[in-house]
Amino acid sequence: MQNKRVLLAMSGGVDSSACAILLKKQCYDVTGVTLNMIPENENAIKDAKLVCKKLGIEHVVIEAEEIFKNKVINNFIETYANIETPNPCIQCNIYLKFGVLYDYMKNNNYDYIATGHYAKIVYNDALKQNVIVKSKSDKKDQTYVLYGIEKEKLNHIIFPLADFESKEEIRNILKSENLDIISSKKDSQEICFIKDNDYGKFLDSNLKKAIKKGDVVDTKGNKLGEHRGLIYYTIGQRKGLRNFKHATIIYYRIK
Predict the structure, then answer these.
(1) Which of 55, 71, 113, 232 is 20 to 30 Å from 220 by CA-CA measure?
(2) CATH number, position 121
């Protein structure tokens, strides 16, 4: 019987690299794939290829800069322009990881797509379908960024890290295959397309309207302090408010 074919999204990082090891040990026929979404993606591609070569699996690169710009970067900019808070990871999952990659999987006769998300897919008897539920790791759980996946796709998705509780467990998997150069990588919490995580500078360069400073006032018009521009704040914020008279912004406007 032929092994099931899995297309694994690989970023060259700890989680996706560990997934490659786990899937291979489970006797899947694994192909690693890296989406080339930004010009600075060379190191990610290089590391993903290194892992695949070490494990003896194929690696492919899919050019996706245009769709990433249109669906993720532009959405990020437009959302901030409307004084809302975006989550680019959600957009990326919908249009890239479970959009572009899912289509590639189907068009090239793979059985599944796999990613390094901390989430679990189980069958729900009441709904008579697969559903996404929390992973075993409360701290690392990522189900909140996966809500946009169409239910029909869940039958063809694998989350190999669903039952792991700590990052140390994941790093040890890599060490067992002598991939210390990957296991020692730090966790990335930054937005991949924003250099140095300075989103204020990024938006200042890309928004059509200039970022304006102004007063922070309460509902009665009393001045609480000055703000650097509305893109730096959100309702309910408690950190980074500097010398405002109250801990939380309930209402604000530019004067």
Answers:
(1) 232
(2) 3.40.50.620
User: Active-site residue 27, yes or no?
Assistant: no
In a domain, 200, yes or no: no
Give 10-residue mean pLDDT values along the chain (255 residues): 89 95 97 93 92 96 96 93 86 96 97 97 96 91 94 96 93 94 83 84 82 79 79 67 53 44
From the list 19, 27, 52, 92, the catalytic residue is: 92
76 phi/psi in degrees, rounded to 5? -60, -45
Please state the domain count of the chain.
Answer: 2
**One of 19, 27, 89, 192 is an active-site residue; which one?**
192
Structural domain boundaries, residue 122: 5-195
The DSSP string of 59-104 is: EEEEE-HHHHIIIIIHHHHHHHHTT----HHHHHIIIIIIIIHHHH
Q: Is the overall model pTM greater than 0.90, yes or no?
A: no
Is 92 an active-site residue? yes
Q: Examine the domain organization and report whether 43 and 150 are in the same domain.
A: yes
Cα(46)–Cα(66) distance, integer angstroms: 21
Helices (H) and strands (E) in the chain, counts: 9, 9
